[in-house]
Write a structure and sequence with these properties.
Shape: globular
CATH class of the largest domain: Alpha Beta
Number of domains: 2
CATH superfamily of the largest domain: D-Amino Acid Oxidase, subunit A, domain 2
Number of helices: 11
Distance between the termini: 6 Å
CATH topology of the largest domain: D-Amino Acid Oxidase, Chain A, domain 2
Radius of gyration: 21 Å
């Protein structure tokens, strides 16, 4: 049995571990944190097929969506729910965009259906705001970001409900920063050497130290987000929700009518904003988000875009958001070019995979499958 050493235990690294084990590799998995704390747990948990670009990105998203559903059968702790999404239109110009999206050849493949306001509320009665229409996407889904990674690692390590473990060819070392990375081994901060036949580095937004050498001249950049979480809504949000600003953000909506949208609200434009809402299993809402592209990023969250998000959410829900209980920022790595991710064989036996941006939770199962196909069998 070949051994693979994987550096990085975010969603991308964990999906590579899962794909490697299913292909018959023995896996040693390292992360600098005792429990991953970065973008993979600071997100909406959306499996977001609806916004993906036509062509290869959409095909990859649909494959990843199918994989998430398969994974959930074995690992129910990931919290997969095939809830779909509703992108709401509150302006006639936004409705025109959705009509052109529906006229494209991939609308059925995406599971799109354009609904009037009454039909929107049949699907999602919690949307009681001022709406003209909604684009319902049946293929979108949601997972629980704070629970998915530990659930996947527990399953990989053979942990039972009693906490016992049976060897399954997977070992996780948390709190181990990689100090040296080579094609045949990784040396962590304790000095322990983890030998392998293949090394795969999934660093997320960590671009320092030995990882910086692997990413020399790579077309990736960090992006910072600002998000919040509310107390329970008090009712079921039967779909995830996006507002009309998401039409400006996602490539799936690049149709001629997009040019006729009125200017974006100045706050939203300054902070590169859209409204996304997903509901956690306990009823709380995750709400966002902003995008900052220029470093150095501010360490503090800003009340101005937060107030905008609250107002936009209230206009869609028809009532104020529940009280905010958490606020945070997150940073992910995004490709500067049109690539879905940056995947490079730095040298024989040493790979780096990063840069899917906000698509990481959606696409990671399929990205990992592609990497393992390129690496080949153990």
């Amino acid at each position: 049995m070949g051994r693979m050493v994987i550096v990085g235990a975010g969603i991308l690294g964990t999906m590579h571990a899962l794909a490697a084990r299913q292909d018959g590799w023995e896996v040693v998995h390292l992360d600098r944190d005792l429990e991953p704390r970065s973008a993979s747990v600071r997100n909406f948990g959306l499996v977001w097929v609806s916004g993906r670009a036509a062509g290869s990105e959409l095909r990859l998203a649909l494959r990843a969506r199918a994989r998430w559903q398969e994974i959930a059968i074995s690992v129910p702790g990931v919290g997969f729910r095939p809830d779909g999404s509703m992108t709401v239109a509150q302006l006639p110009e936004e409705v025109a965009v959705l009509e052109q999206v529906m006229a494209r050849g991939d609308a059925d493949e995406r599971g799109f259906e354009l609904l009037d306001s009454d039909a929107v509320r049949v699907i999602n009665p919690a949307l009681r705001g001022d709406l003209l229409a909604g684009l319902y996407c049946r293929t979108d889904a949601v997972v629980e970001p704070r629970h998915a990674l530990p659930a996947l690692r527990a399953w990989l390590s053979g942990e039972t409900a009693r906490g016992d473990k049976s060897p399954k060819g997977y070992v996780f070392h948390g709190g181990r920063t990689a100090h040296a990375i080579g094609a045949d081994a990784v040396v962590d901060e304790t000095g322990e050497r983890h030998a392998g036949d293949v090394v795969v580095v999934c660093p997320g937004a960590e671009h320092q130290g030995p990882i910086a050498e692997l990413l020399h001249l790579a077309p990736v950049r960090p992006v910072q987000l600002q998000m919040l979480q509310t107390a329970p809504l008090g009712e079921r949000l039967t779909t995830s929700v996006a507002d009309g600003d998401s039409l400006r953000y996602y490539p799936a909506y690049a149709v001629p009518a997009l040019a006729d949208l009125p200017p974006q609200d100045p706050v939203a434009a300054e902070h590169h904003m859209q409204l996304l809402i997903s509901q956690r299993a306990d009823g709380q809402l995750t709400v966002g988000d902003t995008h900052a592209y220029d470093e150095p990023f501010d360490f503090a969250t800003s009340a101005i875009p937060e107030a905008h998000l609250q107002a936009r959410a209230a206009s869609v829900l028809g009532r104020p958001l529940p009280p905010i209980v958490r606020r945070w920022t997150g940073v992910y790595s995004q490709c500067r070019d049109e690539s879905i991710c940056h995947r490079q064989q730095v040298e024989p036996g040493l790979w780096i995979v990063t840069g899917p941006g906000g698509r990481g939770m959606t696409l990671s199962p399929a990205i990992a499958e592609e990497t393992l196909q390129k690496i080949g069998p153990p």
